[in-house]
Design a protein that fits this description.
The structure holds 2 protein chains of 2 kinds.
Chain A (H helix, E strand, L loop, with lengths): L3 H7 L4 H5 L9 E2 L10 E2 L38 H13 L4 E4 L2 H11 L27 H16 L1 H4 L3 E13 L8 E6 L3 E7 L2 E13 L5 E13 L12
Chain B lengths: L9 E8 L2 H11 L9 H6 L9 H5 L1 H10 L3 E10 L8 E14 L2 E11 L5 E11 L1
Antiparallel strand pairs in B: 1-3, 2-5, 3-4, 4-5
Chain lengths: ~250, ~140
């Protein structure tokens, strides 16, 4: 029996229509919604050396992705979870690996946001040895470092597959592992993966539960950190077949 | 002298206010695209009472809690995060933790900790099980 929340959910505009309100193609996101003061214009990521994904440049603000020229109908219309799973796997495999360098200034800003005013990441290190002169990236920064992969997932990756079916994205769990220290001003590669999609139903409606490994590699190809990132995608109506209900 | 890093010891808590200024700075830093984290109307339409602070942001304070307690001596190896209840804009969230296991392994110690965050009502928002090396 749908409750008041279900009614409210039906009034929510599709998420990927909202995401289209941003000028992603220019690297500058401009909110046309009700952003808090100071959030109107977001600066470009100057540190990001990634090539623009092929479909990101075709986004047009205010136009649902599913209605854009050259886009196929969302796979969710097929009501087939296995088809969606395969399409997501293929779409994610096409997302280019990001190459990033994290400037020390960016880590300093992050630490200031956390409440460490004026502190340097290596401030505790009274007498640095040559190795320690490299400024380590604090472990608290890893999920932030990986955030662009989640953006890729929903903009260049699976957004056009889900179309109007997804109302909201909720990060529900992560398993984060560190295999080595990460350093500022050092090139790393960020890789997005896909390891599962199931359908569930909760108090507030239907969900797709997707598991998307986010991995960091150094220049030699060694994995230095990873995050097994799980998103709940709140869906409008049902997606998938009955046998997937308890997947 | 009592060992400060031992099983059962409570980690000094850390209170964080997720103000609009702090959330706005973080959203700008990551070029946030999910309107749930900056659009109150959108968040309310989805059934939340206000803007939801991004999980990756709130979870950043779990390593920070250990860092403020032990400094650079601590290196996290694994962190299992579960988000149960959202933190909202203008919530004050307190991060707490307890050492559940501490073993000597040669030149360093390995600790396991249960960390969690709670809002002003004492409701648990997220929890993290952390394995770390100290020393």
């Amino acid at each position: 029996m749908p409750g008041p929340l279900a009614d409210a959910t039906e009034r929510v505009p599709p998420l990927f229509g909202r995401i289209n309100l941003f000028r992603i193609e220019s690297g500058i996101a401009r909110s046309r919604c009700h952003a808090p003061a100071g959030l109107g214009i977001l600066p470009a990521r100057v540190h990001d050396k990634r090539k623009t994904p092929s479909c990101a440049g075709s986004f047009r603000p205010g136009t649902p992705i599913t209605h854009q020229k050259g886009k196929t109908k969302p796979v969710t219309e097929a009501n087939d979870l296995e088809t969606l799973r395969k399409a997501m796997e293929e779409a994610i495999s096409r997302i280019p690996v990001r190459e990033i360098v994290v400037p020390a200034a960016r880590v300093r800003e992050f630490r200031e946001i956390l409440g460490r005013q004026g502190s340097e990441p290596s401030a505790e290190n009274a007498v640095p040895t040559p190795e320690e002169e490299r400024i380590p990236i604090p472990e608290s920064y890893l999920l932030t470092l990986l955030a662009p992969l989640s953006h890729d997932l929903f903009t260049a990756g699976i957004g056009h597959l889900l179309g109007d079916a997804v109302l909201g994205i909720i990060h529900t769990s992560s398993v984060v592992e560190f295999y080595d220290t990460l350093y500022c001003d050092t090139p790393y590669r960020l890789k997005l993966g896909f390891s599962g999609l199931v359908r569930k139903r909760g108090r507030m409606g239907g969900y797709l539960v997707g598991t998307f490994p986010h991995e960091v590699y150094d220049h030699a190809g060694n994995r230095v950190a990873s995050d097994r990132h799980v998103f709940f995608l709140r869906t409008r109506g049902e997606i998938g077949n009955e046998e997937d209900l308890h997947g | 002298m009592v060992d400060p890093i031992r099983e059962g010891v409570d980690i000094p808590p850390l209170a964080v206010h997720f103000s609009a200024e702090r959330n706005g700075r973080y959203c700008r830093l990551v070029n946030e695209i999910n309107p749930l984290h900056f659009d109150a109307e959108y968040a309310r339409a989805l059934g939340y009472r206000d803007i939801v602070i991004a999980g990756v942001f709130t979870a950043s304070y779990f390593p920070e809690l250990l860092d403020r307690w032990l400094g650079r001596a601590v290196r996290i190896e694994k962190m299992v995060l579960k988000f149960r209840v959202p933190a909202y804009l203008n919530d004050t969230v307190t991060y707490r933790g307890r050492v559940t296991k501490a073993t000597n392994e040669g030149a360093f110690r390995r600790i396991e900790c249960d960390l969690w965050s709670e809002n002003a009502s004492g409701e648990r928002l997220a929890q993290a099980t952390v394995t770390a090396r100290v020393g």
